[in-house]
Write a structure and sequence with these properties.
It is globular, with a radius of gyration of 32 Å. The chain has 41 helices and 27 strands. Helix 22 packs parallel to helix 23. The chain is of the alpha/beta class and 1088 residues long. Helices cover 45% and strands 12% of the residues.
């Protein structure tokens, strides 16, 4: 019979994991799938081993080796044991051993990762360890909170902990640096956590020498083996530890398949693993080592390793297949029940669509076989829309569901092509997917390490789920992200026992060299990349140039040499991943057909390296060099470019062409009349931009004499011809003639430009505004944004409400930043003043209907300790309010006459006009701080307005053009306009506002601005350091600017993603004289 919609939805929600990964060992949900009665004899051995570790006072007890054939449940057994160990208050460490060449480095990485996993009564095992150590040392509760990550530590507190511990254990003095580093690692301050991690890994970066000294850290760390033993000794002070080693079989299988000298490689790995296991058992304290592997793997290790590993480990097992049908039924029932409950679905019986009597035939099957067959059967039901039950786990036909007699389903011809899905079904998902991509807020993922650490794992998992479903999903496993990696895709190779191919991912946007170096080294270790081993790949993702300090360059170059690839962290990719995650979560009808037809994940640049076959099964080819820090300046970690080319396989191989867009959703091509022609390419054909790309923001990097101003003007003019209004900030008087006609046609016009110029001038309303110049067309500030508009939609728990709350909070922060100079923040009580200002602004924004600066000054004057969290508000709030009142009197921009800064006025064309271009001349604001404050208030008002008037389905609603953008949002400094600019950069595109940032100083612009701009133009730059900076920016996105040093006026490189095209831009449509107008001329233009 045919499945009902509810039945099919319930079956589609079932996810049966028959080959658990490392991550699932830590998954609390996996504990609920345990079934009693399986491996009871081995379980008793594990409990006894833990008891021995708890009771031990000297050397660790004899280790355990659990053997069992593939699929018998070794990893699941570890999951249950981990739960029991932590429930008893002890520590559990899982060693991810994918590269045995540096056993102790892998052990240290795994130990650090395991300590950061949740514990029974604490957020992490590390927090538990530090809490118990400080408790035993007799320190105060405040100090204990400080050490366990509940508060930021202080150097004085660290000194107190070391002194107290040294009294109890004098040997602590030798390893006090390790103890200090553990406390820093637990800190909520990510910079301190990176500092602690770097010390544990013995990574020395010159820039942090003073900071290490400040925290009492020694100048040098210890070898990995010493660090692991020191941490083990600290852990032994408070509880026992289980050190579990799993999936050694995969390591041995991959080493046997190495590209060069497989026999030698396998022998080396056997020796390294044998010695490592011996050392774990002998060198750690109150620790029991538990290793899981195939019987053949243990036989190989015990017989071929020179270390007498067999004498230090006791073999238990082997794990057996399913002993009876009742256990098999319980395993399936428990997993199906959880899935059905999530869909509020009541099945005909608990194991539907597996017949109850089928489980009698499951005896002597492994749990993996059982779940594999059930999963395949469920997928068949879903694919054929048919309700038929699995009658036996032995090979044979399935039976129809007994409720209604129906004929046996017709056999499916494997060679038959699947029927095309309905076009309207695909189009509906196309529309939903496009809307999700536009709404995606992923800019910070590419520029902020804390955001990337939080979100990248989910994004990668969503993309890999889509990628595997696009290919049918056979043989693939997706491993969720952890502290070292954002995710990993595993593929079990057919015909090979426990042999796998791995692809791992790690996004590293950190600006700090220490944070970057830590993450690269940890990711390379966790991914197990090794030279000559193509079974394992690591993709390191970044949107800005990699650090070029000697240590960072060395670590990154080493990772690349071992097999890592450096790829751009592309915002378009991130938006696709976010949209895929949301659409998979909602699982609309026809999703699998849509994924198969559209294959969106296969078009992702970061997934270009995913391949089905390991290198050993492909024709041999040289590995293309990745982007190495410093490459653009001709140096790679101290190597010349020519030497680096030899080391890393020659110049970069051509990037494969991106997958074509589906026919239902064509992208604007250069010949598309909707595209904005920005220049002629090398073949003299037009190069065009889709207006929707401008909505994702544009950065122009070009110096004087480059034609930058002409390019900016032409972009504004072409957008105006399409009905897109713009606000243009003009700091240098270069843009005030956007409404002036050419006296005669310039030589740089294209065919048809004369007519386009006439149309532009006739249909565009160009207005020049002059803040603080009352004699022309002045503008005055309304520093308080429209909080009522910002509050709209904040209630609720859905995504829109969450985004509305985030937008409100960012607006409060940006407004407070801009008001600080007016309320007199400064001096010894600066931080208290800032906090009071932000509290009052937040409360004012949540209460008032119409925002007004004078009303806020009165509100601030009445703010006191009854509403503030700070007792000093009684004194400080009135002082701040008085300063603001004085600013209203003294500052013409705040209290003077003129048109209020209102985006509706600035962007709404006069009757009969198609678009308005509001040029805001900054000649009346000679002071840089004045300009930045004005820009901040303009941006806040604009953000409030676009939230109330979103562009909807229009590809581009409006433009905000900022010349000399490095003065508005500079790198390395926080200015009054920094926060508001970052707010727009991260959120404006969702509402249809495109930003254009132009600068002569690529290194001077805030990196989040660069990362949030999807399109880059690179023009003539005059200083070698700026030329190099532009090359680095392009290289970080996968592009090359080989000829940037020879560009002339009007020549640009257009970078959109990895594609970099050289072009020559056309002349602007409005009059661009040889020199800009004088101030008097600007004022005359403004008066009209």
């Amino acid at each position: 019979m045919t499945l009902s919609d509810q039945q099919r939805a319930a079956l589609r929600s079932v996810r049966l994991s028959w080959a658990p990964t490392y991550e699932e060992v830590w998954d609390a949900a996996a504990e609920d799938t345990h079934v009693d009665g399986l491996h009871t004899d081995v379980w008793e051995d594990l409990e006894d081993a833990l008891g021995d570790a708890v009771a031990s006072t000297g050397a660790s007890p004899t280790g355990l080796v659990i053997t069992g054939n593939a699929g018998t449940g070794k990893t699941h057994l570890l999951t249950r044991f981990r739960s029991e160990v932590q429930a008893a208050g002890h520590y559990f460490v899982l060693l991810e051993l994918l590269d045995a060449s540096d056993f102790w480095r892998a052990a240290l990485t795994s130990l650090r990762s395991s300590l950061l996993r949740p514990a029974r009564d604490h957020e992490t095992q590390l927090a538990q360890l530090l809490w118990l150590l400080s408790d035993e040392a007799g320190l105060s509760r405040a100090h204990r909170r400080e050490f366990s990550g509940d508060a930021v530590p202080t150097p004085e507190g660290l000194d107190a902990l070391v002194a107290a511990m040294s009294k109890r254990r004098p040997q602590v003095r030798q390893y006090h640096g390790v103890l200090r580093a553990l406390v820093l690692l637990a800190s909520p301050d990510t910079r301190l956590a990176d500092l602690g991690s770097a010390f544990l890994d013995d990574i020395e970066v010159e820039e942090t020498a003073a900071e290490r000294l400040h925290w009492g850290l020694p100048a040098h760390g210890f070898p990995a083996v010493e660090t692991v033993r020191a941490v083990s000794a600290f852990m032994a002070e408070t509880a026992a530890t289980v050190f579990a080693v799993d999936q050694i079989d995969t390591l041995l299988a991959q080493s046997a398949a190495t590209l060069t000298a497989p026999d030698t490689a396998e022998s080396e790995v056997i020796e390294q693993v044998g010695h490592g296991l011996m050392s774990l058992r002998q060198g750690l304290y109150r620790t029991v080592t538990v290793a899981c592997m195939l019987p053949t793997a243990w036989e190989t290790l015990s017989s071929r390793a020179t270390a007498s590993v067999a004498a230090r480990f006791r073999v238990v097992g082997p794990l057996k297949s399913l002993p009876d049908g009742a256990i098999a039924r319980a395993i399936v029932e428990r997993r199906l029940t959880a899935a059905y409950r999530s869909k509020d679905f009541v099945p005909p019986h608990p194991t539907w669509p597996v017949a109850p009597e089928a489980f009698a035939s499951a005896v002597h099957h492994t749990p993996r076989d059982l779940l594999t067959k059930v999963d395949a059967h469920i997928r068949a039901c879903v694919t054929t829309h048919t309700d038929f039950e699995l009658a036996s786990f032995d090979d044979g036909p399935a039976r129809s569901a007994p409720s209604v007699p129906v004929p046996e389903p017709a056999p499916v011809d494997p060679a038959a092509a699947p029927a095309d899905p309905p076009v309207d079904l695909l189009a509906r998902i196309d529309e939903q997917f496009d809307a999700l991509r536009i709404r995606a807020r992923v800019g910070d993922v590419a520029t902020d390490q804390a955001v990337a650490d939080k979100r990248m794992g989910g994004l990668i998992e969503a993309g890999l789920r889509a990628w595997t479903r696009e290919d049918g999903g056979d043989g693939f496993q997706i491993e969720r992200g952890n502290k070292q990696l954002d995710g990993r895709l595993r593929r079990r190779l057919p015909g090979r026992v426990e042999d796998e191919q791995h692809w791992a991912f790690r996004a590293i946007p950190a600006a700090n060299a220490v944070a970057t170096t830590n993450r690269v080294q940890s990711a390379a270790t966790a991914a197990g990349v090794a030279a000559g081993m193509d079974r394992r790949k690591l993709f390191l993702l970044r949107s800005t140039p990699w650090p070029t300090s000697p240590k960072a360059s060395s670590v990154i170059a080493d990772a690349v040499e071992r097999g890592a690839e450096l790829l751009p962290l592309d915002e378009a990719d991130l938006a696709t991943l976010d949209a895929l995650g949301r659409i998979i979560a909602t699982s609309p009808d026809g999703l699998d057909e849509w994924l198969t037809a559209r294959r969106p994940a296969h078009g992702l640049r970061m997934f270009a390296g995913l391949e089905h076959k390991p290198a050993a099964e492909r024709p041999a080819s040289r590995r293309a060099r990745g982007m190495i820090p410093g490459d653009a300046v001709g140096r790679v970690g101290g190597l010349s470019s020519s030497v680096a080319d030899v080391m890393f396989g020659g110049p970069p191989a051509p990037r494969p062409a991106p997958a074509p867009e589906p026919a239902a959703r064509p992208a604007a091509a250069p010949s598309d009349p909707a595209g904005i022609a920005v220049g002629l390419g090398p073949d003299h054909g037009p190069v065009a931009l889709d207006p929707a790309e401008l909505r994702k923001h544009t950065a122009i990097f070009a110096g004087s004499g480059s034609g930058k101003t002409v390019l900016i003007r032409r972009l504004i003019e072409e957008c105006a011809l399409r009905g897109v209004s713009a606000i243009v900030l003009d700091p240098n008087n270069d843009l005030s003639r956007l409404g002036a006609a050419w006296p005669e046609a310039p030589s740089g016009w294209w065919e048809g430009d004369a007519e386009r110029a006439r149309t532009y001038l006739a249909d565009t309303d160009v207005v020049v505004w002059t803040p603080n110049r009352a004699s022309a067309r002045p503008l005055v500030l309304q520093p308080i944004p429209d909080f009522a508009a910002l509050r709209a939609g904040m209630d609720g728990d859905d995504l829109d409400a969450q985004e509305a709350r985030e937008g409100f909070a960012m607006a409060v922060e940006a407004c407070a930043s801009a008001l600080e100079q007016h309320v007199g923040v400064g001096g010894a009580r600066r931080e208290q003043q800032r906090a009071i200002l932000r509290e009052a602004l937040d409360a004012y924004g949540r209460e008032i209907g119409r925002a007004d600066i004078r009303a806020f000054a009165a509100f601030l004057g009445e703010w006191d300790s009854t509403r503030s969290t700070l007792g000093s508000a009684d004194k400080l709030a009135p002082e701040l309010a008085a300063n603001l009142q004085a600013a209203l009197i003294n500052n013409p921009l705040l209290g003077g006459r003129g048109e209020a800064v209102d985006p509706a006025t600035l962007l709404t064309p006069a009757d009969g006009k198609r678009a308005r271009v509001s040029v805001i001349s900054l000649i009346g604001l000679p002071d840089e701080t004045q300009r930045q404050t004005f820009v901040a208030q303009l941006q806040l008002a604009l953000f409030s307005w676009i939230k109330r008037h979103p562009a909807g389905d229009r590809p581009l609603g409006w433009l905000l053009v900022m010349d000399e953008a490095q003065q508005i949002a500079p790198s390395g400094a926080v200015k009054p306009s920094t926060e508001s600019t970052l707010l727009l950069a991260s959120q404006a595109r969702k509402y249809g506002l495109g930003l254009v940032f132009a600068t002569q100083a690529p290194k001077g612009l805030h990196d989040k601005i660069v990362g949030n701009s999807a399109t880059h133009f690179y023009g003539k730059l005059n200083a070698p350091v700026q030329i190099q900076a532009a090359k680095d920016l392009a290289a970080a996105r996968g592009g090359r600017l080989d000829g940037i040093g020879g560009l002339g006026a009007g020549d640009f490189y257009l970078g959109a993603g990895a594609t970099t095209v050289r072009l020559h831009s056309p002349m602007c449509l409005s009059h661009h004289a040889a020199s800009p107008p004088t101030e008097d001329e600007v004022l005359a233009i403004a008066r009209g």
